[in-house]
Amino acid sequence: MNKRDLQKFRKILTAQREELMGNAKKALSGDIHLDPDDFPDEIDTASSEIALAFTGRLRERERGLLAKIEQALEKIEDGVYGECESCGEQIGTKRLEARPVAELCIDCKSEQEKLERRMG
């Protein structure tokens, strides 16, 4: 991968990281507790608890993505970004543009998904 492509992906990954960090800061600055006195009935309370649980799951997914972004940025620094972790071949630029944190080439990812489907 040439230096220009690496710079492009570094910029994309950094922008994604900043967006996720901004989302996390907004979530932390918001009021994320439930006070039973704020809700007139059980349905309102249940609805708010579901929304809070959903937000928690979303934040957990964002934390995982943030870790993958950090790993991808480290790979750029180490000069191994864009190499498939399974076969060692270059991951296609189109795949990296669609998913900059991709760790596997499309062939290895397809094979992994086939195995996952077989395993249930």
Task: Describe the structure in brief.
This protein is mostly helical and 120 residues long. It contains 4 helices and no strands. The protein has helices spanning 3-29, 42-78, 93-98, 106-119.
Please tell me about this protein's structure.
This protein has helices at 3-29, 42-78, 93-98, 106-119. With 120 residues, it is mainly alpha-helical. The protein folds into two domains: 1-80, Four Helix Bundle (Hemerythrin (Met), subunit A); 82-120, no CATH class. It contains four helices and no strands.
Task: Give me some keywords for this one.
mainly alpha, 4 helices, 2 domains, 120 residues
- Report the major sheet: none
Secondary-structure content class: mainly alpha
Poorly predicted regions:
none
Q: What's the CATH topology label of the largest domain?
A: Four Helix Bundle (Hemerythrin (Met), subunit A)
Average pLDDT over all residues: 86
Architecture per CATH nomenclature, i.e. the level-2 architecture of the largest domain: Up-down Bundle
CATH superfamily membership of the largest domain: DksA, coiled-coil domain
Layout of helices and strands, plus pairs?
Elements: H1 3-29, H2 42-78, H3 93-98, H4 106-119
